[in-house]
Fold this sequence. Notes:
The complex is a heterodimer of chains A (338) and B (358).
Chain A: E1 2-5, H1 6-20, E2 24-28, H2 44-48, E3 53-55, H3 60-72, E4 76-80, H4 91-98, H5 101-104, E5 114-119, H6 134-138, E6 144-146, H7 151-163, E7 168-173, E8 180-183, E9 197-200, E10 205-209, H8 214-226, E11 231-235, E12 238-240, H9 244-254, E13 257-264, H10 269-281, E14 290-294, H11 305-308, H12 312-320, H13 330-334
Helix pairs in contact in A: 1-7, 3-4, 8-12, 9-10
Chain B: H1 3-6, H2 34-59, H3 73-81, E1 88-90, H4 96-101, H5 106-114, H6 123-126, H7 137-151, E2 158-163, H8 170-182, E3 186-192, E4 195-196, E5 199-200, H9 201-204, E6 220-225, H10 229-244, E7 250-255, H11 274-281, H12 285-295, H13 301-321, H14 343-357
Parallel strand pairs in B: 1-2, 2-3, 3-7, 6-7
Antiparallel strand pairs in B: 4-5
Bound molecules: thiamine diphosphate and magnesium ion.
Thiamine diphosphate (TPP) sits between chains B (94, 133-135, 163-166, 193, 195-197, 258, 262) and A (29, 58, 60, 82, 86, 89).
GO molecular function (chain A): magnesium ion binding; oxidoreductase activity
Keywords (chain A): Oxidoreductase, Thiamine pyrophosphate
Cofactor (chain A): thiamine diphosphate
Amino acid sequence: xxTLSMAQALNAALRDALREDDRVLVFGEDVxxxxxxxxxxxxxxxxxxxxxxxxxxxxEAGIVGLAVGLAMGGFRPVIEMQFDAFxxxxxxxxxxxxxxxxxxxxxxLSLPMVIRIPYAxxxxxxxxxxxxxxxxxxxxxxxxxxxxxxxxDAYWLLRDAIADPDPVVFMEPKRxxxxxxxxxxxxxRAAGFGRAAVLREGRDATLVAYGPTVPVALEAAEAAxxxxxxxEVVDLRTIVPFDDATVxxxxxxxxRCVVIQEAQGFAGVGAEIAARVQERCFHSLAAPVLRVxxxxxxxxxxxxxxxxxxxxxxxxxxVDRLQFDDEPDLLHLAGxxx
Amino acid sequence: MSVDVLLPSPVPVRFVAEDxxxxxxxxxxxVPAEERLLEGFRRMVVGRRFDRxxxxxxxxxxxxxxxSSRGQEACQIAGVLALREDDWLFPTYRDSVALVSRGLDxxxxxxxxxxxxxxxxxxxxxxxxxxxxxxxTQTIHAVGMADALRRKGEDGVVMAFxxxxxxxxxxxxxxxxxxxxxxxxxxxFVQNNKYAISVPLAKQSAAxxxxxxxIGYGIRSEQVDGNDLVAVLSVLDAAVEHARTGGGPFLVExxxxxxxxxxxxxxxxxxxxxxxxERWEAADPLARxxxxxxxxxxxxxxxxxxxxxxxxxxxxxxxxDLNADPEADPFELFEHVFAEATPQLREQRALLASExxx
Lengths: 338, 358
Ligand SMILES: Cc1ncc(C[n+]2csc(CCOP(=O)(O)OP(=O)(O)O)c2C)c(N)n1
Ligand SMILES: [Mg+2]
């Protein structure tokens, strides 16, 4: 076990993948000598040379399209979109080609490629640097969508993503890049690709979170414990494939569920989770499944982002509305302002 | 149009050598009037001082981020001097000096980088589009605006600023093609400062010069020494005139250099050496213009002092105005999503209100 930041863990995963498999190529904007704006590719060009880790011309559709061709040609590209919103020029390539090639060709062509995207906010970034864009990808059949919340998961999920036969959109929560954790790089641990992890066991309610809101959920659970409420925290780890079994088992046990996402709420991943829980756990639920999300607004400017981002207090407010006292919160659900 | 007319000069157009002496410019370009060159000098002095102030404010935590244009002042100022007040400008995040020079309130310009809001000035009143971060996307907006002006019978011109890296984006190429096909009165002004963050020009493009990107679209193009204000202004004057008088779009590439890191957050030592930066110090656009104007007896020592005094005053005001946190009303987050907030946004506003009460 070594202690690494998430950025360092990702760097280690790329390094190990490059070392183990000659077909792995890393490219994108500023990933070469600079090592990426978040230093995730630090030192890779130096160690593996310009042929294996290189800067591309500045064009995201080009980066993804080039990766498609290289993957068709037998390589395993791991590409970087510099920030969430700067992947949008590549959306056509992703939605029309990356996601569909296997299906279009009846499996004759597959695209083992990884699109790494630093995403979400909480770092005081100006506009276009803080979008939570996971729902666009999760909504696109044919894409696996992954988002780690710990350094160890960052390492293993990225290794698994690179080894996967299908394209993976690998979403890295920016604000967790510098958070440190133990990693077992080189020494395989249990939770696999496609499995959610129960990070904290509890009896009273389940908090389901992924990526940037996992630490928020844990913080809320700590605070709730001080008030005598015992919350379970489930970290999805992979949004697609979705681990119904782990989520359902947790909610059937606790009977209550709050889904937490940083993204704007409307038509988001949290809505999917809430629907799935409701469909599978209806008779176990003592209260409606609630969502805690960002607002349905363009990501705020830096000085206002704290008003937008779901924090432990917003989560605890939701937990309080889970009808522990048998009083349905009809007023709130009807919307006080409308 | 014949190929020869469209092609840029094989070497960048230059009026003033690095040491400030006049050189013979290629035919077809006029030396701008002395008054405008003097005005250009004064604005460059203020612009550079403003830029330095903004960098300092970033170090003090007063700005979230600042992309400096130090070394690019000839481009920043000539771009603005070439336009009329009723012309439109479509700038990038790096063009704050140009906007301040156009007379926009510095606090409003810096609102984006200060983190107060996404655009602090009124684009309609100033005829300046919001500073654009998604690279090259503004160039096609500029074409649309140019077409709009023409449809309305106005003789305004639109200038779109873009960097060297941005010219690799698909949107730039679509914009060139649209502009040419529509005959839109738009000037594409490429500030080739040799880097896109860490990526040097050589990795960006194999073209002999970025100005050659125009010919494939049928766009008249030129390349110019971007650290020679006299040349940049002369070429942009010609480009704007060409667009204004129905000649269609024009592409100008200015060869310049980004003296500072990409932003305060960047570490340029990772990808370029000091000697390279020092070589470009010798090509400094401001010193060059000063020498040129002084040797011609147009610029006096007193006028130079006065320009620096004015710049100090300007910077002091900026410093003072930015010395407090920007005002921010969290409820404004819900105000501009739509003309009228949806019921859901009103609910969310109420939720935030209840959170803020606790
Ligand atoms: C579509 C898009 N991709 C990536 C980025 C991230 N980014 C911001 S500035 C920059 C470099 C731009 O270089 P250039 O066009 O030369 O302009 P300069 O910054 O040198 O003025 C990059 C890659 C972005 N803003 N937009
Ligand atoms: Mg550049």
